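Progress narrative, Year 2. Work on Short-chain specific acyl-CoA dehydrogenase, mitochondrial from Cinara cedri advanced from sequence curation to structure prediction during this period.
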Amino acid sequence: MEKKCCASAGTIMCVHNIYINAIHNFGNDKQKEEFLRPYTDGKNIASFSLSEPGLGSDASAVTTKATKNGSVYTINGTKSWTTNGVESKALIVFATTDKSKKHKGISSFLLKKNIPGLSLGKKENKLGIRGTSTCNLIFENCNVPEENVLGELGKGFNYAMITLDAGRIGIAAQACGIAQAALELAVDYASKRVAFGAPITRLQTIQNKISKMAVNVETARLLTWRAASLKDAKTPHTKEAAMAKLVASEAATFNAHQCIQVLGGMGYTSDMPAERYYRDARITEIYEGTSEIQNIVIAANIFKERGL
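Result:
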């Protein structure tokens, strides 16, 4: 995702991988055969539906309900900001099965998107990552077999938080790609642009911008690889994933902004990809947890490590 430097492709892959990781980690053999195996060859994509209208960053306040009726759970509610929502063939949806337990009463369900009772809202017209689909999912008396409960009942919120740790590493890698692309475009343009009788690479102002952009890329990449290595080693990485996502997303936004400054008026036109980098970068500070949420996660884990 980092080398691709295409935010839309990175988003599609990242969300699909979140779905895959959740089933791989918490699904049983039958669920893996039905909901995992057909989604590992690139022919089908899936989605991960947690957010709801009006909830923002409070993922624990899920209002979508799943009511037990015999051998099925009947789901009612609306999910928002579902990436891959239009094209996906299957999804994981989170719903409350016991409201009295608050976040400990949230469960996760596996379902095919063509199931009766599930319909799509409008496709969002977004600032960036326009190569991806984002829409609401509307559940109206949608009956899901009880064998489609992913993992244990009431563990959905915990599963979501564990899964999003890995997702944040993916978003960090995506952001690194945007930051790197913006740097390369700025350097390439500056080396050819002549002003005051010389390439603008000789101007200290331009040199300062390029230097800061390069440092941003390397810092973000090291944090991202560090978080990924911890995940591969199956060691705790919540704090490190949040750090990588925070730094990389802000680096992407900063570098895209500075790239446009280096390009001047050309950077503001669609003839150059700088404006797309700028539009795409902005979402990396929002989805999978805003920058403000990453700060909370980082601080909470630091206090936890010290027994506070």
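The beta strands are 46-49, 65-69, 72-83, 90-96, 106-112, 118-123, 134-145, 149-150, 194-195, 198-199. The radius of gyration is 21 Å.
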